[in-house]
């Protein structure tokens, strides 16, 4: 008896795509399944490192690796730009004209900053007085800009939600406070945090526990600010309701959007995120398309930890799915984020679709006991150690020993 | 959570006055919630409020301003005219939905 080879194609070899091919290669026989993963280029960045680059707390070469070295044997890495998915023909076309045929498709193309979506953001001052740290180029350029910064108004700005790693801009403000103190510039600098939401902290337990942090550090907050355009000449952000925020150095998080091929293929919503069932990651429209990581519309944070937990659940479901069985595992939206709070400390947040971040302690294998929603040195060291865990345990698909489902053990329930 | 009576209906609200159970909402409750923040609902308002309700029922999340704008074909500037100052928050309030949130 001969079995026909089946083909799994994964679009994107970032956090989710790399983990998923490495895990599935060990679960799907090479005699039955061909696994192919596509990415534009051969550089895999540890994106959480971008936060530390502008302050010189990490070196550029520590956040970059070749994708080839991260993909397990038996998986084909194709370098090329995805142009379009044809869900009916089950075909992916690349910009260079190649096509890939699939039986099952995983979209893991993430989300990226889109400064082109806000008038005036791109321009002669882009990556200079209008800085950002959501790309490698942006984070390294910001390091230059901060090195030459001599005081004035430093404005940290979020264009619109959702963004990946939604706490990163707050962490940036905390680390900037530290950085400026160390350089003796804090007295001469006003730090302003500008958000489209109605506060820097919007959830009850978090704002009760953490609300004081910004005031303690002398960071002022401008809320409900929906930017309409950036005026680079006058150095102001202008909102739809005609408020202005002046800056000397702007650090903006541009609108984040999913990949354009998602829109071209008719698979996305208004921000190019693919609608999926939030428990199985299966497309709501196509029974052979799954979406993992930042590329989907699941209502939880766009974060590497979410990608990790959802991939673990997905792998079990996928094995059932390809055997024609019902998928019996359900992802609960579990997210787990370290938040740098400056002064060599960090906080840890743990939450899911139904439970907001709580206080308490949290055992993290390899890292030890962490305090939830409170600043501690252990959490900061945990965040730093995470880079090694990312390269050596998470991406290769080794078990981290953290349950994918959120647990309430050690946590203080909300009042 | 405090219980309060709005337009003759007993509803539960949080400390900012947002309904905590979106299913306790109705059109006349919406009108009254709008009146409480000084807005008289016109057809243009209703179109947005009903979009928010339907969208929440499908996705389980309050639509962002951009989503409301693109899905209903209303420029963001007009959203600011209809719900002055804080359109995202005010639309959610009137539609009986959770306000847009970050993760902390
Ligand atoms: C500054 C910063 C700090 C962060 N800090 C944290 C943190 O502390 N903790 C945490 O959990 N998460 C953090 N994150 C978020 C985390 O990095 C992402 O959530 C995670 O990488 C998502 O994985 P992904 O696989 O969905 O997307 P990605 O890892 O971004 O991968 C997507 C891949 O798809 C490829 N791709 C896209 N379009 C195409 C195309 N057309 N053709 C071919 N390939 C394509 C891209 O090249 C990319 O390699 C941070 C992110 C940033 C930017």
Summarize it:
The complex is a heterodimer of chains A (415) and B (104). With 415 residues, chain A is of the alpha/beta class.
List how many beta strands of chain B DSSP finds.
2
Radius of gyration of chain A: 22 Å
* Mass-distribution shape of chain B: globular
Query: What's the N-to-C terminus distance of chain B?
Result: 20 Å
Which strand order spans the largest sheet of chain A, edge to edge or round the barrel?
Answer: 5-2-1-9-20
The structural class of chain B is mainly alpha
Shape of chain A: globular
Provide the descriptors you would attach to this structure in a database record.
heterodimer, A: 415 residues, alpha/beta, FAD/NAD(P)-binding domain, 25 strands, B: mainly alpha, 2 strands, 48% helix, 8% strand, binds flavin-adenine dinucleotide
Question: What can you tell me about this protein's structure?
Answer:
The complex is a heterodimer of chains A (415) and B (104). Chain A is of the alpha/beta class and 415 residues long. Chain A folds into 3 domains: 6-113 and 257-322, FAD/NAD(P)-binding domain, CATH 3.50.50.60; 115-255, FAD/NAD(P)-binding domain (3-Layer(bba) Sandwich); 336-412, no CATH class. Helices cover 23% and strands 27% of the residues of chain A. Chain A is globular and about 70 Å long. The termini of chain A are far apart. The mean pLDDT of chain A is 93. By secondary structure, chain B is mostly helical. Chain B has one domain (3-94). Helix content of chain B is 48%, strand content 8%. Chain B contains 5 helices and 2 strands; from the N terminus they run ββααααα. Chain B has helices at residues 27-36, 43-59, 65-72, 76-82, 87-94, and strands at residues 3-6, 9-12. In chain B, β1 (3-6) and β2 (9-12) form a beta hairpin. Chain B is globular and about 35 Å long. The relative contact order of chain B is 0.17. The model of chain B has no long low-confidence stretch (mean pLDDT 92). Chains A and B meet through α4 and β21 of A and α3, α4 and α5 of B. The complex binds flavin-adenine dinucleotide (FAD). Flavin-adenine dinucleotide binds at residues 12-17, 38-40, 47-48, 50-51, 81-82, 108-110, 133-134, 164-165, 168, 259, 261, 293-295, 302-305, 307, 337-338 of chain A. Flavin-adenine dinucleotide binds next to α1, β2, α6 and β21 of chain A.
């Amino acid at each position: 008896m001969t079995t026909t080879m089946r083909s799994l194609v994964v679009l994107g070899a970032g956090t989710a795509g790399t983990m998923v091919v490495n895990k599935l290669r060990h679960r799907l026989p090479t005699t039955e399944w061909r696994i192919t993963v596509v990415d534009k280029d051969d550089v895999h960045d540890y994106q959480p490192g971008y936060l530390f680059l502008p302050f010189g707390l990490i070196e550029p070469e520590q956040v970059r690796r070749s994708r080839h070295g991260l993909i397990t044997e038996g998986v084909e890495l194709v370098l090329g730009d995805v142009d379009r998915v044809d869900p009916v023909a089950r075909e992916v076309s690349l910009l260079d004209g190649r096509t890939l045929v699939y039986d099952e498709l995983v979209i893991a193309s993430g989300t990226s900053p889109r400064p082109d979506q806000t008038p005036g953001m791109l321009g002669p001052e882009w990556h200079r007085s209008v800085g950002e740290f959501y790309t490698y180029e942006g984070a390294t350029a910001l390091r230059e800009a901060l090195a030459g910064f001599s005081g004035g108004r430093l404005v940290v700005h979020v264009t619109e939600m959702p963004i990946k790693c939604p706490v990163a801009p707050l962490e940036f403000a905390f680390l900037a406070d530290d950085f400026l103190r160390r350089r003796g510039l804090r007295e001469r600098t006003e730090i302003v945090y500008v958000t489209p939401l109605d506060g820097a902290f919007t959830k009850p337990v978090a704002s009760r526990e953490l609300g004081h942090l910004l005031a303690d550090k002398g960071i002022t907050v401008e809320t409900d600010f929906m930017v309409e355009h950036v005026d680079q000449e006058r150095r102001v952000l202008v909102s739809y309701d005609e408020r202005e925020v002046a800056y000397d150095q702007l650090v903006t998080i541009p609108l984040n959007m999913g990949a354009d091929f998602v829109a071209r293929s008719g698979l996305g919503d208004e921000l190019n995120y693919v609608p999926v069932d939030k428990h199985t990651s299966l497309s709501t429209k196509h029974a052979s398309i799954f979406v993992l990581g930042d590329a989907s519309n699941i209502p939880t944070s766009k974060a590497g930890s979410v990608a990790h937990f959802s991939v673990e659940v997905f792998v079990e479901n996928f094995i059932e799915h390809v055997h024609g069985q019902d998928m019996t595992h359900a992802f609960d939206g579990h997210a787990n984020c370290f938040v740098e709070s400056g002064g060599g400390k960090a906080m840890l947040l743990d939450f899911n679709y139904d439970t907001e971040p709580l206080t308490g302690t949290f055992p993290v294998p390899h890292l030890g006991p962490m305090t939830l929603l409170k600043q501690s040195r252990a959490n900061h060291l945990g965040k730093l150690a995470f880079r090694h865990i990312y390269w050596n345990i998470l991406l290769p698909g080794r078990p981290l020993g953290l349950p994918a489902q959120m647990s309430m053990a050690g946590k203080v329930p909300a009042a | 959570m405090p219980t309060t009576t709005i337009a003759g209906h007993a509803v539960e609200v949080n400390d900012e006055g947002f309904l905590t159970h979106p299913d306790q909402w109705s059109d006349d409750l919406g009108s009254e919630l709008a009146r409480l923040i000084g807005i008289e609902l016109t057809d243009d308002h209703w179109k947005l409020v009903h979009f928010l309700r339907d969208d929440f029922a499908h996705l389980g999340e309050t639509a962002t301003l951009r989503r409301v704008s693109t899905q209903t074909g209303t420029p963001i500037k007009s959203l600011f005219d209809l719900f002055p100052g804080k359109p995202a928050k005010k639309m959610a309030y009137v539609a009986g939905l959770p306000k847009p949130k970050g993760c902390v």
